[in-house]
């Protein structure tokens, strides 16, 4: 289907991953890999958007989600976790960060829409939210809190507490980077 966006937003916000521009990327679509495409990720609708090569064609396309196994934008790889065996996960596209042979961190980015009145004009504000999922020992675990992480790594409780204490500002400013760094740190400790 055609991708349409008529959002009137506050402070240059948008519904997309990072910025509202197409970036070079690749995709696994219908069991075939495609490279050198122009893609962007609509986080609000959880859609991958494709810009055709033809510069005169301004139509942008939403790809059929069930046909997308993965896509890469810049250095980030997103996978379609449509068959997670538990209903408590959001499902859809997650950034994949491989930590070791048996452990992978998945980050779900999503945005909540809030309508606001500014100077008698209705505008949209998008609020970025996250869901963190850890695939460890052939199981998926939600790890949205420190206690959930400690439950999975009880022998590393002190290290986890220290990391939280030392990286408070990163946790507040960039929760996704905080979680990536924490999981890399935990999985590289030899205790």
Write a structural description.
Helix content is 19%, strand content 43%. The chain has helices spanning 146-152, 157-166, 168-173, 175-188, and strands spanning 23-29, 32-42, 47-51, 61-62, 68-73, 76-81, 92-100, 103-118, 121-136, 139-142. It has a ten-stranded antiparallel sheet, covered by helices on one side.
Give descriptors for this structure.
191 residues; alpha+beta; ten-stranded antiparallel β-sheet; 10 strands; 19% helix
In short:
The protein is 19% helix and 43% strand. With 191 residues, the protein is α+β, with helices and mostly antiparallel strands.
Instruction: Give the topology string: H per helix, E per strand.
Output: EEEEEEEEEEHHHH
- CA-CA gap between termini: 51 Å
Which strand order spans the largest sheet, edge to edge or round the barrel?
Answer: 4-3-2-1-5-6-7-8-9-10
Please summarize the sheet with the most strands.
Answer: 10 strands, antiparallel
| Class per helix and strand makeup | alpha+beta
Task: Specify the overall morphology.
Answer: globular
* Count of helical stretches: 4
Low-pLDDT runs: none
Using only C-alpha atoms, the radius of gyration works out to 19 Å
Mean pLDDT: 91
Total strand segments = 10
Strand content: 35-45%
Helix content: 10-25%
SSE arrangement:
Elements: E1 23-29, E2 32-42, E3 47-51, E4 61-62, E5 68-73, E6 76-81, E7 92-100, E8 103-118, E9 121-136, E10 139-142, H1 146-152, H2 157-166, H3 168-173, H4 175-188
């Amino acid at each position: 289907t055609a991708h349409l966006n008529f959002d009137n937003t506050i402070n240059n916000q948008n519904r997309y991953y990072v910025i509202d521009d197409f970036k070079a990327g690749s995709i696994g679509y219908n069991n075939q890999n495609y490279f050198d495409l122009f893609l962007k990720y609509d986080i609000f609708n959880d859609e991958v958007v494709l810009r055709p090569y033809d510069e005169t064609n301004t139509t942008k396309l939403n790809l059929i989600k069930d046909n997308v196994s993965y896509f890469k934008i810049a250095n980030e790889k997103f996978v379609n976790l449509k068959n997670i065996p538990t209903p408590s996960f959001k499902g859809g596209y997650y950034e994949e960060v491989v930590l070791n042979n048996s452990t992978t961190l998945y980050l779900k980015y999503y945005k909540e829409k809030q309508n606001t009145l500014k100077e008698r004009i209705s505008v949209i504000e998008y609020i970025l939210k996250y869901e963190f999922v850890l695939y460890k020992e052939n199981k998926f675990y939600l790890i949205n809190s420190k206690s959930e992480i400690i439950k999975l790594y009880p022998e590393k409780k002190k290290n986890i507490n220290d990391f939280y204490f030392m990286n408070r500002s990163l946790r507040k400013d960039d929760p996704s980077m905080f979680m990536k760094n924490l999981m890399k740190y935990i999985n590289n400790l030899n205790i």
